[in-house]
C-alpha cells in the first residue's frame, strides 16, 4: 500500500460523521489477559516463521497447513483441508457454533513470496530475527530470547519472510482467541477462518475452492486480515479495492519497417499514430476522455467525509514520488482511487538506444491496464475503449491486418483484452454495511477513536474472487506496519503493531455483530 | 532507393519544360566502339569482383585500391593514393588536362557491404555468377563464359557483392573512356575520379580526406556514380538528397516505477505525457505542427514540373507498402521529399508483451530522426523543437531531473541531439546549374529524351561532406537497376543496365560542359 504520511488530528465534527453514528463506547487499554496471550503467542509465531512457505514448493505449503491446523485444533476449532491440488487450503471452524450469532469468515494466507536468502541481512529468512534500530538508523540484532523478557519495546521488530505478510495476523488472531478464553468471555460472532495457500501467486484457485465448499464457508461477512495499515499507523479499515483489466493496443503502419529517408513524410508512422490515439484518450490533467468512462460513479457526502478524514500527507507523498503535482482525476489521493484509471504500462515501437535505426516502424504497441471500480466492469470499459478508438478513425481488426484491410483502411489497429479473472475484480462494501458498523464498534472500543477508513484502495487484491463466490460483504482489516518490506527482503513486523493488533482483534471478536 | 513504378510516357509539353530549354540533339544508338568497349570491360569487372572489399578488412581495401590504380593508369590517368589510415582512397586524374575545359570529379566507392556467404545462392559472393530468370521466376546459373559469346541477353544479371554497388559504375566509366579513345574522340571535360574506401561505413573520413587534398580534387562539379536508378529503369539524375539529424526525447514521470493500482489517477504517466507531446508535433495527415518547421521552402513552377514528370506509380507504391493512403505533407511522393520529416524511429516505456508489468513507468523515450533539406539545417530544427516542447509546458533539463527540478516542474523532459556530421547534411544542386544542363545534354544525346530528374531524394547519402568541402555543385547519376539487392545477399547487376550505362557515360563525357 502506498501511504507514507504522518498522522494528523481529525476534527471532532468530521470524526462524528465518519463514525457513522456509532454508539459511544468506553475504550480501554489492553487487558492483562490480552497482554499475556499476546506475549505467549510470540513463541508460536517464531515457530511457524521457521517453516518455508513459497507456494512453488507444495511440500512446504503442506507443512504450514499442518502447523496451522494443529494451532486451531488446540483452540477447539474443527479443521479441514480444502482440496486444491497439492497445496490444500485450510478451513478452521469454531465449535460449537452458537448458532444465533452472525458468522464472520476471516481470510488470510499462509503462503509467502519467494526469497533470495543472500539479500537478507540475517542468517536466514526462515529464522525469526529480533532487531532494534540504532541511533544511526541501522537495524541491530538482539537475542531472540529478549522476547521472553519483562520489557518488550514496541519499536523492536521481528524480521523473517511472512513475519508480517501474512503469518502475524493469523497468530494474532490465535492470541485474541486465547485472551477471550482466559477472560471467560464469549466471542460476539461465530468464527470461521480460511487460509489461502496461493495468495502470493494471485489466488488463481480461490474462487474455485470456495465454489466447491460454499456450505462450509457460509458466513455473513468476510474480514480479510492482510496488507499494511495506513502509513499513519492508525487502525485501518479498507472497504474496497479496484479491479484490474488489461489490454494490448497495436497500431499498424506499412507492412514492414521502412527506410525513414525514402518514406518519411509519405508513409504514416504507427508510433506517431499511436501517440495521437493515446493522447485522445486523456486530457492534460490525467482525466480520461473516453466517453462514458466515469459514468455511474457518484460520491455522496458520506463518502466524501470518509475520504477527507483519511490522514494523508499528500505533500510528503508527492515529495517521495518526485512529482510536483498530482493528476486531477480526483481532488485528493483518496478521491482519485474512486475512479477507474487508464494507464499505459508499456510502450514499444522498433528500438531505442544503441539499437535504434532510422526506420519508420511497422507497428507500435501500448500495453494498457485499467483499474476498475464496481461501477465500471471491464466489459463496459472495453466497449467504450473500442468505440473511442473507432471514433478516432481506426478500423479495428482481429489480428494483423490483411492486404485487403490495408488497402481499404488508412488507420488500422487491434485491441486485445487480457484475460480478466474474478480475482482481478473490483469490490466495495458500503461504508454503512453491518460488518463495517461491527468493525467500527470494535475499533472504537479498543482505541476510543474512529479508525482510518479507506473507501476504496487503488490496488487490486485477489479476494474479489472470494467475495463474488460467497456473495457476502467484506472489509480488509490490515494489522501490520506499512513499512514492513512485504514481498521484498528484510520483511519485518513491528512489535507495537503486533500487540495493538491483538488488542483490536480481541475487541472486534468480543463485539456482537 | 524506394521506387518500384512502371514507366509511363510523359507529355511533350512537360518534357519540354523539364528539359529546361536544352538544345535539340540527335540521339543515336550505342556506337560499335561503345559496344565493343563495354563487352571488353566485362572481364575486368569479373576480375575486380573477385576481390573482397569489406571496409572492415584494410588489406582487402588495399588490394582493390591497387587494382583500380592500375586500371586507370592503363588509361593514361595519373593516380595517387590519398592517405586515410590503412584504407587509402584513390584519386585518378586524366593527363594531360586540356586546361581550357571544365573539370568534372567523378565520385564512386570501391568498398562494399559485409557479406554472410551462407545467405547467397551461389558458391561465393566473390565469384561473379551469371544468371538468367526462369519461366517460374527463379534465377538459374549460366556459364560465365557466355559473357564472351556473340549474344548477351540484356535481362541476364551478374550476381556478386558490389556487382552493382559500386564496382559496376567504375568499370563502366573505364569502358566509356575506352570507347571514346577507340573512336579517337576527345572528352568534353577534364576528368578526375575519386574512389572512397569507406562509403558503406558512412564515409566518416571523406570530408577530412577532401580537405587535405583540396588542390588535387579541385573541379567544377562532382558527379556521383552510385545508387539505383528510378524504378522505371529510365536514365536518372538526382540533384539533391535530404540530410539526417537525430534526437532522443525522454519524458520523466515519478522518480521510479510505481504500482499502477496505488498511483493510477494520481501520478502522471510519462508514456501518456510523451504521447501527448508527440501528438502535438504533427497533425492527423502527417504535417509537422512545430512552428516554422517548413519555413523557407518554396517550390517554384520549374521544380513542380520536374517533380510531376517523374514517372512514379504511387498506387503501386502504396500497394507494395501496404498503406491505403499517403500522408499529406506533399501532394505526391516527390513533393513529400522536398520537406523535412519528423519521424519517431523508436519508442519505449517500461515493457510490452510477456514482460509487461502493471506499473506506471518512470520514463518514456522517443527516438526521433529528422530528414533535413538545405533550407532547414539541423541546428534550426533543434531550436524549433525545443521551443515547441517548452510551449507544451515541459521544462527541459540537461539530464535526469534533480529532486529540486522534480519539485518545481510538473512536466520534465530532455532532448538530446545525436551528433550531426557533415556526411548527414542535406545538399541540393539547382536544377538549372551548368552541371545539370551538361548531364541533360549528354543524356538527351544518348537517349533522345529527358532523363528522370529527382530534385531531392528522401534518403541521405554521405556525399554531403564532399560537396561541402569542395564547395561545388553535384549531381548523382545512378546507373544500376533499382532491384539490385544492394546491401543484401544476392546483389546483382542487370546487363542491359550495364550496357545502357556505358552508352550514357560515353555521351556525357563527349559533351562539352
Automatic annotation (TrEMBL), chains A, B:
<dbReference type="Pfam" id="PF01546">
    <property type="entry name" value="Peptidase_M20"/>
</dbReference>
<keyword id="KW-0378">Hydrolase</keyword>
<keyword id="KW-0479">Metal-binding</keyword>
<dbReference type="InterPro" id="IPR011650">
    <property type="entry name" value="Peptidase_M20_dimer"/>
</dbReference>
<dbReference type="InterPro" id="IPR051458">
    <property type="entry name" value="Cyt/Met_Dipeptidase"/>
</dbReference>
<feature type="signal peptide">
    <location>
        <begin position="1"/>
        <end position="27"/>
    </location>
</feature>
<dbReference type="Pfam" id="PF07687">
    <property type="entry name" value="M20_dimer"/>
</dbReference>
<dbReference type="InterPro" id="IPR036264">
    <property type="entry name" value="Bact_exopeptidase_dim_dom"/>
</dbReference>
<protein>
    <submittedName>
        <fullName>M20/M25/M40 family metallo-hydrolase</fullName>
    </submittedName>
</protein>
<keyword id="KW-0645">Protease</keyword>
<feature type="domain" description="Peptidase M20 dimerisation">
    <location>
        <begin position="240"/>
        <end position="392"/>
    </location>
</feature>
<dbReference type="InterPro" id="IPR002933">
    <property type="entry name" value="Peptidase_M20"/>
</dbReference>
<keyword id="KW-0732">Signal</keyword>
Amino acid at each position: 500500500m502506498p501511504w507514507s504520511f504522518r498522522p494528523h488530528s481529525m476534527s471532532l465534527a468530521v470524526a462524528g460523521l465518519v463514525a457513522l453514528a456509532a454508539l459511544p463506547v468506553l475504550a480501554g487499554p489492553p487487558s492483562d489477559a490480552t497482554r499475556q496471550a499476546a506475549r505467549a503467542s510470540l513463541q508460536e509465531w517464531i515457530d511457524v516463521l521457521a517453516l518455508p512457505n513459497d507456494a512453488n514448493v507444495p511440500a512446504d505449503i503442506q507443512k504450514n497447513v499442518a502447523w496451522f491446523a494443529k494451532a486451531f485444533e488446540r483452540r477447539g476449532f474443527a479443521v479441514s483441508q480444502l482440496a486444491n491440488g497439492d497445496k490444500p487450503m485450510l478451513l478452521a471452524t469454531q465449535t460449537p457454533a452458537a448458532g444465533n450469532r452472525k458468522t464472520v469468515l476471516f481470510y488470510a494466507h499462509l503462503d509467502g513470496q519467494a526469497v533470495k536468502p543472500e539479500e537478507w541481512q540475517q542468517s536466514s529468512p526462515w529464522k525469526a530475527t529480533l532487531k532494534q534500530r540504532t541511533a544511526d538508523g541501522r537495524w541491530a540484532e538482539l537475542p531472540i530470547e529478549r522476547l521472553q523478557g519483562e520489557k518488550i519495546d514496541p519499536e523492536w521488530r521481528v524480521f523473517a519472510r511472512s513475519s508480517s505478510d501474512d503469518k502475524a495476523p493469523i497468530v494474532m488472531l490465535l492470541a485474541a482467541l486465547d485472551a477471550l478464553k482466559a477472560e471467560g468471555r464469549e466471542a460476539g460472532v461465530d468464527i470461521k477462518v480460511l487460509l489461502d495457500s496461493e495468495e502470493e501467486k494471485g489466488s488463481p484457485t480461490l474462487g474455485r475452492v470456495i465454489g466447491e465448499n460454499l456450505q462450509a464457508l457460509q458466513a455473513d461477512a468476510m474480514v480479510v486480515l492482510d496488507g499494511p495499515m495506513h502509513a499513519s499507523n492508525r487502525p485501518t479499515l479498507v472497504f474496497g479495492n479496484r479491479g484490474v483489466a488489461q489490454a494490448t493496443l497495436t497500431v499498424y503502419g506499412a507492412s514492414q519497417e521502412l527506410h525513414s529517408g525514402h518514406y518519411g513524410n509519405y508513409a504514416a508512422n504507427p508510433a506517431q499514430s499511436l501517440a495521437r490515439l493515446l493522447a485522445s484518450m486523456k486530457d492534460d490533467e490525467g482525466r480520461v476522455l473516453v466517453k462514458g468512462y466515469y459514468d455511474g460513479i457518484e460520491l455522496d457526502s458520506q463518502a466524501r467525509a470518509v475520504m477527507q478524514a483519511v490522514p494523508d500527507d499528500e505533500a510528503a507523498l508527492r515529495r517521495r514520488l518526485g512529482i510536483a503535482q498530482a493528476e486531477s482525476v480526483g481532488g485528493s489521493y483518496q478521491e482519485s482511487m474512486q475512479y477507474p484509471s487508464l494507464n499505459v504500462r508499456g510502450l514499444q515501437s522498433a528500438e531505442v538506444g544503441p539499437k535504434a535505426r532510422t526506420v519508420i516502424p511497422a507497428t507500435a504497441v501500448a500495453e494498457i491496464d485499467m483499474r476498475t471500480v464496481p461501477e465500471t466492469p471491464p466489459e463496459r470499459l472495453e466497449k467504450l475503449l473500442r468505440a473511442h478508438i473507432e471514433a478516432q478513425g481506426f478500423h479495428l481488426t482481429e489480428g494483423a491486418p490483411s492486404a485487403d484491410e490495408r488497402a481499404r483502411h488508412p488507420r488500422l489497429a487491434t485491441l486485445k483484452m487480457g484475460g480478466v479473472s474474478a480475482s482481478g475484480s473490483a469490490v466495495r462494501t458500503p461504508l454503512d454495511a453491518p460488518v463495517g458498523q461491527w468493525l467500527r464498534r470494535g475499533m472504537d472500543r479498543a482505541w476510543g477513536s474512529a479508525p482510518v477508513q479507506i473507501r476504496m484502495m487503488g490496488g487490486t487484491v485477489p479476494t474479489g474472487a472470494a467475495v463474488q463466490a460467497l456473495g457476502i460483504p467484506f472489509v480488509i482489516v490490515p494489522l501490520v506496519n506499512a513499512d514492513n518490506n512485504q514481498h521484498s527482503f528484510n520483511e519485518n513486523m513491528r512489535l507495537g503493531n503486533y500487540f495493538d493488533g491483538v488488542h483490536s482483534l480481541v475487541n472486534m471478536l468480543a463485539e456482537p455483530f
